[in-house]
Write a structure and sequence with these properties.
single chain; alpha+beta; Beta-Lactamase; Helix Hairpins; Heat Shock Protein 90; five-stranded antiparallel beta sheet; five-stranded mixed beta sheet; 12 helices; rod-shaped
């Protein structure tokens, strides 16, 4: 055996070289494996970091999406998101409420068709949806790169602004008309006094049953009627000052209904009165407020020639309405309603849709409510009825206990320019709008 190994030294060298090459290959393989293991571990760490960053990014994106959805749904402006073909892909709650449809019903429909279905169009001018006034505009929707990717259709509820503008225009119009009316009334009243004087003298001098005396009496009655109209005109245009105080609501409303009995007995009207337990008294001039309620009740009854329901309610009003504590006194009927074309003019003097109306009743109502630092809102649907809401300040008695007394005392001080109105002549039934 030894001889065989010794005889073949070449094979031994070759075998030794083979083992050495194998060892070197195994070492290289081990180094490669270690390097690969290290690289795999590094890649696992990088992948874990990438996954964590991706999770954070997805979380941030989801939070941003929820935040943007919350902003969109919290907006009072209605929003319709459309593509370039005007197909709706998204809407918010405000748009759904204005259009009377859910998001699922609006999607995949053309925006122009949806708006046309409720009588609207993309236009900046005021448009009506029931009692709501809206302005509709369209703006381009752009992506991150600034490229246009559709449109936003914005439905802005401008009801409050529209009402404020309407009230401002009404005040300016009434102020101009009041100045003119005052001048005319004074000019007419002077010769009327002379006519009344001579008619009275004729009645005294003529025989008791003569036709001339009857004519004189008719002249006198016509002059008295004209004088009542002029008195209402002067009442309307003269600044009203009054001594306000706390008055229990229930008897005040009840007495106003009794004053309107001459109108209530003519048709079959069911009268309902609802007073909030939290509002038992009203800060007002009782005579003036009775005048307001009388006018509104008579108007409501006349709007129900075939009978109906007359509802009078008193409730608390949110503080933001008048900028402080306030109450809402509402007179509602189920009558014929007011033509939308006439709604902005119902408080104008001499505007009336009645054949025998002088159009002074509601003008005086507006003047009295304005003198109370309140406001009157009118909502009406043709064929369903009208609601007139008087919103009056309701000063708190939780603060200075002398505050209300001081206010009453200051208001009750008469002046030469503006005497206190103790009593108000009840406007004629036919003088309302």
């Amino acid at each position: 055996m030894t001889n065989a190994v010794i005889k073949h030294p070449e094979e031994r060298e070759l075998l030794h070289a083979a083992f050495k090459s194998f060892d070197e290959a195994a070492q290289t393989l081990q180094q490669s494996y270690s390097a690969l293991t290290t690289r795999v571990e590094q890649m696992d760490l990088e992948l874990a970091q990438s996954n964590e960053a991706l999770r954070r990014q997805l979380g941030d994106n989801e939070a941003m999406r929820v935040h943007l959805d919350g902003i969109l749904e919290s907006m009072s402006t209605g929003v319709l998101v459309t593509d370039d073909c005007e197909t709706i892909s998204r809407s918010n709650r405000a748009a759904e409420a204005l259009l009377g449809a859910r998001d699922t019903e609006l999607r995949n429909r053309r925006a122009s068709d949806v708006l046309a279905g409720v009588g609207l169009g993309v236009c900046d001018r005021p448009q009506h949806i029931g009692q709501t006034v809206v302005s509709i505009s369209r703006v381009p929707l752009r992506n991150d790169s600034g490229m246009r990717s559709g449109h936003l259709i914005l439905l802005q509820d401008i009801t409050r602004i529209y009402q404020l503008e309407e009230r401002l225009q009404r005040k300016e119009r009434l102020a101009a008309m009041g100045e003119l009316i005052g001048r005319i009334a004074h000019e007419i009243r002077n010769p009327l006094g002379s006519v009344e004087l001579f008619a009275s003298m004729l009645q005294r001098d003529l025989a008791e049953h003569s036709s001339g005396k009857r004519y004189a009496q008719q002249i006198s009655q016509a002059v008295q009627l004209m004088d009542r109209v002029l008195s209402n005109l002067l009442l309307y245009m003269r600044p009203i000052r009054m001594a306000r105080d706390w008055h229990v609501a229930e008897p005040l409303i009840g007495e106003s209904i009794k004053l309107a009995a001459h109108a209530l007995t003519k048709v079959s009207v069911e009268t309902r009165v609802e007073i909030d337990r939290e509002v038992q008294s009203i800060w007002c001039h009782d005579g003036q407020l009775k005048q307001v309620l009388l006018n509104l009740i008579v108007n409501a009854v006349q709007a129900m020639p075939n009978g109906g329901i007359l509802a009078i309610s008193l409730s608390q009003e949110p503080p933001q309405t008048l900028g402080g504590s306030a109450v809402r006194l509402c007179v509602r009927d189920s009558g014929v309603g007011i033509d939308p074309a006439h709604r902005s003019r119902i408080f104008d003097p001499f505007f009336s849709t009645k054949e025998a109306g002088t159009g002074l009743g509601l003008a005086i109502v507006h003047s009295i409510v304005d003198a109370h630092q309140g406001r009157i809102d009118v909502e009406s649907v043709v064929g369903q009825g009208t609601s007139c809401s008087i919103i009056l300040p309701h000063p708190s008695t939780d603060g200075d206990p002398n505050e209300a007394q001081v206010q009453t005392r200051n208001e009750s001080q008469p002046s030469a320019a503006h005497p206190v109105e103790r009593e108000v002549a009840v406007a004629e039934e036919w003088s309302h709008e």
